[in-house]
Amino acid sequence: MIKAIVDTNVLISGIISTKSSPAKIIDLWHERKFILVTSKKILQEVERVLNYPKITKKYHLNKEKITDFLKGLSTFSEVCSPRKKILIIKKDLEDNKFIEAAVVTRADFIISGDRHLLELGEYQGTEIITAKEFLLRIQVYL
Asked: 30-40 burial, b for 16+ CB within 10 Å, e for fewer?
């Protein structure tokens, strides 16, 4: 089965825009069409962003909805704990947590809207693609 890491911006977009490509990716994950890979650092970042006052207010995200989503992420994904630091992306060091998770789990894809990751394109066999590209690619496996 395909293993994919979904960048924070894609996860957040999927929650707040229910008809978007990121939302379709979340739906595919809920349907168990691929294995979502995450890490403790990624989960912490998702939680932090979901709790930004401007996000909770604008998109009407209450604590219960946020807690349920985070619980689902940690329960129904492969959560890894990379031990090796990778510093391949120098312009935004925070992006390296996605690369670290990909390497330790041998993920097939990182799905991202982040230009630093997308510019890299691939790292040690993990392709880095947009949400729309992932939706096209996964159709082959469905």
From this structure: eeeebbbbbbe
98 is written with which tokens? 């996605």
Predicted confidence at residue 114, as pLDDT, reads 95
> Does the global pTM surpass 0.85?
yes
> Contact at 8 Å (CB) between 61 and 80?
no
The beta strands (E) that lie in 1-142 are given as 3-6, 35-39, 78-80, 109-111, 122-123, 126-129
Burial (CB count <10 Å: 0-12, 13-18, 19+), residue 78: middle
Q: In the block, which residue shows the tokens 């962003």? A: 49
* 12 touches 59 (CB < 8 A): no
pLDDT for 34-68, tens place per residue? 999 999 999 999 999 999 999 999 999 999 999 99
**pLDDT, mean of residues 90-113:** 96
Residues 6 or more apart from 8 whose CB is under 8 A from it? 42, 45, 46, 49
Structural domains in the chain? 3-138 (3.40.50.1010)
Mean pLDDT value of segment 112-137: 97
